[in-house]
Amino acid sequence: MLSSSGVPLNWYLLLSAILFCIGIAGFLYRRNVITVFMSIELMLNAVNLSFVTFSYKFQQVDGHIFTFFVMVVAAAEAAVGLAIILTVFKNRKTLQVDDINSLKN
Amino acid sequence: MNFYLLTLIKVAVVAGVFLTALAYLQWIERKVLAHIQLRPGPYRVGPHGLLQPLADVIKLITKEGFIPSHVNRFFYTLAPVLAVSLALVSISVLPFGPRIEVFGIETWMQLTDLKIGVLFVLAVSAVGVYGVALAGWASNNKYSLIGGLRSSAQMISYELPYAVAIAAPLLLLNTLSFREIVNAQSGYYFGFLPRWTIFQGPFPQIISFLIFLIAGFAETNRIPFDLPEAENELVAGYHTEYASMMFASFFMAEYANMLTVSLVATLMFLGGWNAPLPLPVSGFIPTVILVLVAAICFYHGAQPYRKWDRFTFPAAGIISLGLAAIFLVPILQPILLPLFWFIAKAGILLFVFIWIRGTLPRFRYDQLMHFAWTFLFPVAMLNLLVTGLMVALFGK
Amino acid sequence: MDPFLFLLLAAIAVICALNLVVQTHPISSALSLVGVMGSLAILYLLLGAEFIAAAQMIVYAGAIMVLFIFVIMLLNAQGERLTRRGAYVKIFGVPLMALFLGLVAFVIQAALPRSEMVHFGGFTHGGPADIGRSLFTQYLLPFEVVSVLILIAIVGAIVLARKEID
Amino acid sequence: MPEVSPEISEEVSTAGTETAETRKRRLTVNMGPQHPSTHGVLRVVIDLDGEVITSAQPDIGYLHTGIEKQCEAINWSQVTTLTDRVDYLANLSNNLVYALAVEKLIGDIEIPPKAQWMRVLLAELQRISSHLVWLGTHALDLGAMSMLFYCFREREQVLKLFEMFSGQRMMTSYIRVGGLALEPPRGWHQRVKNFVDIFPSRIDEYEALLEHNPIWLERTQGVGYISVDDMLAEGVTGPMIRAAGLPWDIRKNEPYSSYDKFDFKVATRTANDVYARYQVRMEEMRQSTRIIQQALEGMPEGPWKADYQHVTLPDREKMKTQMEALIYHFKIVTEGFRVPPGEVYQAVESPRGEIAYYVVSDGTSKPYRVFMRTPSFGNVQSIGTLLKGKLIADSIASMGSMDFVLGDVDR
Amino acid sequence: MLPEPLRDYAPAVALEELNPAMIVGGHADRGEPTLYLNPDHLLEACQKLKERFAFIRISSVTAVDRYPEEPRFEVVYHLHSLENNARLRLKCQVGGPAPAVPSVTSVWSGANWYEREVFDMFGVEFRDHPDLRRILMPDDWEGHPLRKDYPTHGHKYSYKD
Amino acid sequence: MPNSYPEVYFPVVVQAVLAFVIAVALSSLSYLLGKRTRDKVKDSPYECGMVPVGSARERFSVKFYLVAIVFILFDIEAVFLYPWAVVYRELKMFAFVEMLLFIALVLAGFFYIWKKGALNWSQSD
Per the CB < 8 Å rule, is C58 touching B122? Predict the structure, then answer.
């Protein structure tokens, strides 16, 4: 019952591409720094899916390791990135990307 | 027998038992607390208040399901659903006993055994933060928001010592599957000392066990870590704006988590269903205990403190005697003995949960956070490193 | 069963991802992202990546997104206002995006044989032991470098956030 | 997906344009009047900066029943029943201070020693029961649930003693102008003795539960400091001030009702924190037990009310035999007794601190003015000073250590 | 001139020396010394009593309505000296359509609520009081309940909502 | 006995569905069964019986954020511990030294935070 036909590998990669594109769209459209940041996380996730899919294709565990490292980097990035957002918010009192496009006030 | 049919039956049985256990855990807690506090506790509904949980449920579901208009409706309703469903999922990977044979069907007393069982439990508890954070945020009320924020900060802070405390015994056991974890703890040193991880060489995991329990108390928001729902400065914390069954859902989740923590502690540290003594001796212990219980019941029945005790206590005594007899049936022993030990160990841990609630005051918030970060976490790390060193040096 | 599961989860993931982009309130976006991560975790599982699936839930959903939600609550971030730039990005952006997606799809279809199928259980070496073995032998250096990365991240984040405190 | 309530959507339009005003992390929190742990309808408006209280303003009056006004409309003896309702946890102390004030106004009335001894005994029993309520509820506030039940177990015994002599558990109205209302029933003294015999061991029990508990110590030690000068200035009295090292106890300083004939120590501590207040109250309970023991042992024989026919009701026996007694009885019951004009300020040490009645008479059978200087009023007044600059998490512990009764504040 | 019973009472003598207009009367009824002070010199007197005779506590502030006499109100202060274990009663008589006395909160901050209560109950104003508003009655209450011309059952039977 | 992946995970799916159904049922039951009345006061946020002052959407102490940051970074470390623990028997001392290095570096960060006072909650910020 459960061991049926399976799913083409391509679908996974396509899903990954679609998510990546949505991430780009969010990155471009959204004006809230935090949402922009979340769009980046979405792109990272999309890439991770590709890694894991390729890992399946080559029957090797390396893709998983890469994914794991991507997670670690994403975590570090989130920690530092959100700290920057916090500081920027403190100085500019806004989360709108347009208002914080210059390094100086 | 068809695997899927069997699975459905097992899920149904486990869910039924688990939910009943949850309802009666509440009853037991009220009774134990009441006796600690010199009062009888629930006593009106049914003999000794045994039907109280049922009455509570009926009361709660017939109360008004009120959603205030100032809340964010979607997240407000999502939060309790999330809390309860996450709390009930973990049970699917926890084993209750060894492989058994019933009516010729061979099966494990477990829904399923994952290679990543431990991580599964951790992942579920990690996501559990959302129920609390969402409830606090969606309620659009100061007390809820502060309560939710504090509660989620508390949960993530204790998540670390919790996770590290589990990692230390895994160095001895080298597996993340609960079934193998229990199997690795079977056997006895010197013929009597069980090889549970809290006794296992080269480095007994007593410190891990204590850290795990303490962090478990905090994860489940129990006294002395029940700040999120502390009934003083924050009124009722994140569930201030909740009513009726939605309100009770959080408590149900809390009890389910408490049960899960006790079961995981039993599996990880107390050898699961392994008996504390080798077989010929331990086989009689349940019978002896049940006979003792029966004797106590008969004694109290003979000297009734309340009118109905004359009937209820002897009835309980007869049931105990019956159970004692059942434990002596050789065919049933391989099924019942492991279950008995498993339930007994988890029950003792649950009793500790309740006992502590009856005894300790609660921490102040900063003390609680301070305790997690500057005591519990470093100690857990140190314990992990020492365990690692010992295993590397003296392990097999 | 496999296609059904895949399609269900893919649909959830895509809808959540779109919701992330569409919602104006950051909390809704953040929770949509949690939804994406949850469905991806199950997709990882279907691909045999048991450990990664669990790590995805623990690290991504259980930690990173909690940090996001904390920051949103902390800054009392509200829905955003629309800006003038939105208009022409919309006009040119959407077709370009569709073009890019089509290109990628074409490349994927062309590069990989279509017959290759994914079965749940087709790859069973994604357990913690396999990851551990690989991580602590083959990928030892990156593993140790990660600790440096974490150290830097800790210091950086605290230095930045302390400014807010002082 | 989430519906946006009108309030929120309003904010959406102004999002991203936060002003310096809204940036401040100020938060105003109402604590009370409907709050689980303000012990009555007290409202405290608290301004927070993060976790720190920048200002706390107590707001009272939710339980104001106009007792002082009512006192002016009824006669002297009827007022006793109203005094019960001022501080409902220490009603005998209120009875006592009123009786003492009126007796001082009358001037030449002499209270027999037995009544005085009984008054002391009752006031101390009252102190024990009041402190027990405090201990139980305070521990409950800090999360130690079981303490409440243990304390109420003993308080129940005290209330039973009250019920035994007056028929009432709380509103006893037992101490009357000129003596007592009734003679305590037979066997009552034995019951009191039984109670004080076991009570010290019960105090040990409480201490065993709390004093060896690191969480209790953490929550109470070094918490709720307020300087002695502030306390004196704000009108704080009672155990609060004694916990700061000032041995001021009206029972010692201005002895009334023969307190000078009893041997007891004024409990003081110097730490001036919640824990010190807890210790002072524990010590006071022990001292009260000692006083009760002395009162029981040295209980003088004799009448239990003054033989002063203008004020105290005559004995039943006399009423049946003497016409004059019957007339006085009739007059006192229908019209009430008259009190010579003048004014008097009488202070007594209640479980909460200085309780003082300022009674003015114009010579009629009704009081002209009864002013009640209640300890809780002064104590609650100092909440602003007490909480300022402290952690919000300590607010309950600090306020709880004051032991205020809202009936006592609002009157 | 000091009244007879207070001739030997040190605080009274000291105040009299300071300013003869300060004390307008007094008695020592039932062993409780009472000084009637001129409201204009109240603060001065209180300062002196606090500094010189260690009356560091103000036990209470209240008032008595002598309606229909005039001046109608007696504002009564009870001072307490822990050092000397002594109590002293001060009185200020005020009347007129808008009775007012200076606030003693600058001397004893604890007088704050007591003065608010007197204001609430008797309608006596306290000049320079930091926060003079009703304390026990609702903010929109009309009348001052403890005045003798205020009926015991109140002016109204229903509360405003 | 279940051996293949689908069979191993099937019970988890069933349990998850059941848990979700139970949770939804519990939450919606009282909504369906209970009586409904509404009024203005009942509908307002709980504020100890007073009219609410200010909005509930206020910002909070940055401490919460610091805790979340620290948690993220150590959570990763914790996740690394599990594969390590599983292969520990095979690698023994080698794995120990590796992890010691890793933990030492991460703990250096921890003590830095500690020294910076980010974990000190009682201190006002």
Answer: yes
Please list every residue in chain C whose beta carbon sits closer than 8 Å to the beta carbon of residue F114: none
pTM of the model: 0.87
Q: Which residues of chain C from 116 to 135 reach within 8 Å of chain A, CB to CB?
A: 116-123, 125-126, 130-131, 134-135
Tokens matching residue C129: 């032991």
| Confidence at residue C81, expressed as pLDDT on a 0 to 100 scale | 60
The CATH class that applies to domain C1-81 reads: mainly alpha
Determine the CATH number of domain A9-100: 1.10.287.3510
3-class secondary-structure state, position C25? coil
Q: Do residue F102 and residue C143 have CB atoms under 8 angstroms apart?
A: yes
Contact F64 C70 (CB under 8 A): yes
One-letter amino acid of E151? P
Mutate to test the interface with C, among F57, F63, F80 (most CBs of C within 10 A): F80
Regarding chains B and F, contact by 3 or more CB pairs under 8 A is answered as: yes
Q: What is the value of ipTM here, to two decimals?
A: 0.83
Q: Tell me which residue in D16, D19, D20 faces A95 most closely, judged by beta carbons.
A: D16
Per-residue pLDDT, D21: 41
Query: pLDDT at residue F96 above 70?
Result: yes
| For residue B347, pLDDT beyond 90 | yes
Residue F125 lies in a domain: no
With beta carbons under 8 A apart, name residues in chain D contacting A93: 18-20, 23
C25–D13 CB contact, under 8 Å = no
The whole-angstrom separation of Cα D313 and Cα D115 is 15
Residue C18 has which token pair?
């779109």
Let me know if residue F124 belongs to a domain.
Answer: no
Which chain D residues touch A99 with a CB distance below 8 Å?
16
CB neighbourhood size of B357 (10 A):
21
| Nearest CA-CA partner of D233 in B312, E50, A61 | E50
F-facing residues of B in 19-48 (CB < 8 A) are: 19
Residues of F with CB under 8 A from a CB of A: 4, 6-7, 10, 62, 65, 69, 72-73, 75-76
Token pair belonging to E65: 């309505």
pLDDT tens-place string over residues B240-275: 778 778 888 888 888 999 999 999 999 999 988 888
For residue C83, the tally of other CB atoms under 10 A from its CB is 14
Q: Report the C-alpha gap between B225 and B352 in whole angstroms.
A: 14
Is F62's CB within 8 Å of A86's CB? yes
Q: Is C135 at the interface with chain F, CB within 8 A?
A: yes
Domain boundaries, chain C: 1-81, 82-112, 125-166
Residue F3 has a pLDDT of 67
Contact B231 D394 (CB under 8 A): no
Please tell me the predicted confidence (pLDDT) of residue B1: 58
CA distance, residue F23 to nearest chain B CA (Å):
5
**Both structure tokens of E8:** 């030997």
First to last CA, chain C: 57
H or E segment to which residue B100 belongs: strand B97-102
Residue C83, both tokens:
């800006």
- pLDDT tens sequence for chain D (411 residues): 333 333 333 333 333 333 334 344 566 777 767 666 667 788 888 887 767 788 888 888 888 888 888 888 888 888 888 888 888 888 888 989 999 998 888 888 888 888 888 889 889 999 999 999 999 988 888 888 888 889 998 999 899 988 888 888 888 888 888 888 888 888 888 899 999 999 999 999 888 888 888 888 888 888 888 888 888 888 888 888 888 888 888 888 888 888 888 888 888 888 888 999 999 999 999 999 999 999 888 888 888 888 787 778 887 788 888 888 888 888 888 888 888 888 899 899 988 888 999 999 888 888 998 998 888 888 888 888 888 888 877 888 888 888 888 888 888
Q: Is F123 within the bounds of a domain?
A: no
State the angle between helix axes of C128-137 and A62-92 in degrees (0 to 180), rounded to the nearest 10: 80
C and A in touch (3+ CB pairs within 8 angstroms)? yes
